[in-house]
Amino acid sequence: MPTAESFPIEKIFVPTKMKKAIKPEIVGEIAESILDIGQQAPISVRLDGDRLVLVEGLHRLEACKALGETTILGVLVPAELAQPKSLLSERPEVEAERIKMARLKQLRLEKEAAEASMAAFRGVHATEAPRTRSTTGRDNPKASPGRTAKLTPKTLSDWITQQKGSGGRY
What we know:
The chain is α/β, with parallel strands linked by helices. Helix content is 46%, strand content 14%.
């Protein structure tokens, strides 16, 4: 394991992609920690010609800069070991979780759509004028007495129950 040494901060090049990831609140927290207990974890740098390139430790480096430090503890790592870490999204367990969450979102959207559809369906039927039925069933002399006595089912469950009772298929 490489040993930590002191590197001049102005000699450390920070790649542009890394600079975009700076979070000032984290830099502030690390700066406070460095003031309280000192730098505990070294940064990682690699040689690129005559300059040092930051590999890991962006927020520690920025915290030391903010504190006015001229040097920082770091370890020199070989270029082969300085390859970027695999992205979190490339790990199989993260991908499986992402797929699961997408499936749950799709189910939730389908459920909401079904509920909205049922609410709209109920709203349409609630605004229709109520149908009046003959209590005697004798308004239509050609109608058979058994058919006029049945009520129109209000729900799907009522309809299924009615179909079962009459021997119909559903």
